[in-house]
Amino acid sequence: MQLEKPQVIHLFHHLPMNVGSAHSPVEYLTMRVEKVYISTLTCCGQSVRKLMVHEQSRRWLKKGLLAAVAVCILVPVTYKIIPALLQDIIYAYRLSVPFFVDLSQPADLSLNHTVNMYLTSEEGISLGVWHTLPESRWKEAQGKDLMWYQNTLNDGSPIFIYLHGNTGTRAAPHRVGVAKLLSALGYHVVVPDYRGFGDSTGEPTESGLTTDALHVYNWVKARSGDSLVVIWGHSLGTGVSCNTAVKLVEQGVVFDGVILEGTFSGVLHPIPFNIFTWYYWTFPGIKNLYSFLTEEKKVVFPTEQNVKKMKCPILFLHSEDDHLVSIQTAREIYEFAAKAQSKDRVKFVTFDGSLGYLHNGLYQDPKLPGIIREFVKSL
């Protein structure tokens, strides 16, 4: 606000008379006003700073309270969600690849001597299963019903139960390839999808998968007569096979023979993963969380311990260029098994890495039929 003229004159009357030639009364008054202005600004600035500090403190307090509330809510929720995430990481069962395949129609995949059926492993759990006949009987099989297929299991031909790995269904190309290979050798092939996989109901767990495998084995044995029943486990299926073998040993039952392809151990080596689940591993802390939860939930598939208890002949198959499970891991497990039995009953066959079979492609090797045939003859 501007000073009125009388007030200005009044101020000038109070100006000191000895201001000197360097400062006129107007300049002196200006200097005094500037000092007052600066002093006022300084006081205001200190007040503003105090207000800012106070406001900042309030903001941090609000953030702290919100964080505490979030922790209280998210921790129990996360504890409920993480086990489901863990299931996805280990089993990847929600990925029903290949897509748009009708699992009830195996003939669509050139399995024209295969029947689709469903077995109930326990209350509320229905397993989708394929039974493929020896290739030599494909013409005879045309138009036959489920009961006819079941009755063929006691025709004296060896029977293979193929326990597949994680991700996808029994219609995956390499699984179909194994079924065709064994059928061409004159064997029956029974290929189940575990609970939660494919058109099977339920949610997968380690104990649940073992229960499913036990049920399929008992179902086959009840119909097989004197036929050999051999288990072929691949990847995750090797863990299921060994769990099942130990359960049967505890009951006084021994498998006729077991093939372990791409075998792993949840203790010696992580669960084999695939291109659809790698991104979980990029999240900070997921590895530590996985280790904690697997210990807590006992999701281990302790194959190296199980093979020490198994009493049946075992054939290990492993590619040197396996990108999911190192051949060193497989060798370690083989050594445990051979030491528990003998190297006459436990064999280890490797495939040259230059062939490019990786984790899923061994069924393509031209020497594999002869290897399988010799193993079956030794049983």
TrEMBL record:
Keywords: Membrane, Transmembrane, Transmembrane helix. Signal peptide: none annotated. The keyword Cell cycle does not apply. Residues 158-258 form the AB hydrolase-1 domain. The chain crosses the membrane at residues 65-86. The keyword Transmembrane applies. This is AB hydrolase-1 domain-containing protein.
